[in-house]
């Protein structure tokens, strides 16, 4: 089991001491203080012993890029919290395809997948398209937590048919539309192409600064492990009062090593991903 307390702010006190009439008087000089807040401690257990990708099988190419998908196989990928691949994930015309759940498969739970190597600072590029009314996402900094879904610990780059999926009209100010930081920051400008057409996506992660790109345009920027990040969490579905464990994991996004897995979401719909590549940043 893992327990931790994350200090959300730091108290800084500057005091001056001077002698006065045989006694000592303490005066606050230049005091600057923020109340220290402790996140509610939750217990959870990280999954251990699952297979990792053979990183040597993904050689560095021009510009420092490595392909995480070769267009032919799902080598390096496995299910979240499982050693194998869920059955609805296949390779279809040089793309990773999550097949829509059949009626009898609905309600059986989601089967997200991840690339089985953790990453810290990187640029991730990919292309995506959706069927009509489809929903998915790209996660990063996933921690595999026993008995919990992948999104409980990972920010989500939303993948959505904005015109036909009801999620586009939910949330606040469009923050559930494609390329948004799901349920927290809306992607602006919103430049997604219609369902059935390919879009380009990119996620830049460097020392806590995160930028989402959609069709080569930067549309979202935010900063992990900051007071801004806490406010974003508390304003939505991951608020401390609503979902304490998610709040704790996302406040400490990436865990103690500030790194995690990259994953693709199964939301029960037809979605395709291709040309997935990553460049590590030192």
Question: What are the main properties of this structure?
Answer:
single chain; 282 residues; mainly beta; Jelly Rolls; eight-stranded antiparallel sheet; five-stranded antiparallel sheet; 2 helices; 6% helix; globular; disordered N terminus
Account of the protein in words:
The chain is mainly beta and 282 residues long. It has one domain (46-280): Jelly Rolls (Sandwich), CATH 2.60.120. Helices cover 6% and strands 32% of the residues. The longest helix has 8 residues, at 227-234.
Order of helices and strands: EEEEEEEEEEEEEHHEE
Poorly predicted parts? 2-37
Q: How many domains make up the 3D coordinates?
A: 1
Number of helices: 2
Anisotropy-based shape:
globular
CATH topology grouping: Jelly Rolls
The average pLDDT score comes to 87
What proportion of the residues form beta strands (DSSP E)?
Answer: 25-35%
């Amino acid at each position: 089991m893992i327990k931790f307390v994350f200090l959300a702010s730091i108290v800084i006190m500057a005091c001056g001491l001077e002698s006065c009439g045989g006694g000592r008087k303490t005066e606050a000089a230049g005091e600057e203080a923020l109340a220290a807040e402790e996140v509610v401690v939750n217990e959870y257990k990280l999954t251990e012993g699952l297979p990792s990708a053979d990183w040597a099988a993904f050689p560095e190419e021009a510009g420092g890029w490595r392909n995480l998908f070769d267009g032919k196989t799902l080598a390096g990928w496995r299910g979240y919290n499982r050693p194998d691949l869920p059955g609805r994930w296949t390779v279809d015309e040089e793309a990773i395809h999550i097949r829509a759940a059949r009626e009898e498969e609905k309600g059986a739970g989601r089967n997200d997948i991840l690339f089985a190597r953790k990453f810290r600072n990187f640029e991730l590029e990919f292309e995506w398209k959706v069927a009509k009314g489809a929903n998915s996402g790209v996660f990063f900094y996933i921690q595999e937590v026993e008995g919990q879904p992948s999104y409980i610990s990972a920010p989500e780059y939303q993948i959505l048919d904005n015109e036909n999926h009801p999620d586009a009209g939910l949330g606040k100010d469009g923050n559930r539309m494609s390329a948004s930081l799901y349920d927290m920051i809306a992607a602006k400008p919103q430049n997604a192409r219609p369902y059935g057409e390919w879009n380009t996506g990119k996620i830049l992660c460097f020392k806590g600064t995160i930028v989402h790109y959609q069709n080569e345009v930067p549309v979202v920027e935010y900063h992990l492990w900051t007071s801004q990040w806490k406010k974003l969490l508390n304003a939505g579905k991951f608020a401390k009062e609503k979902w304490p464990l998610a709040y704790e994991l996302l406040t400490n996004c990436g865990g103690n090593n500030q790194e995690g897995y990259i994953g693709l979401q199964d939301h029960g719909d037809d979605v395709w991903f291709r040309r997935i590549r990553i460049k590590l940043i030192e």
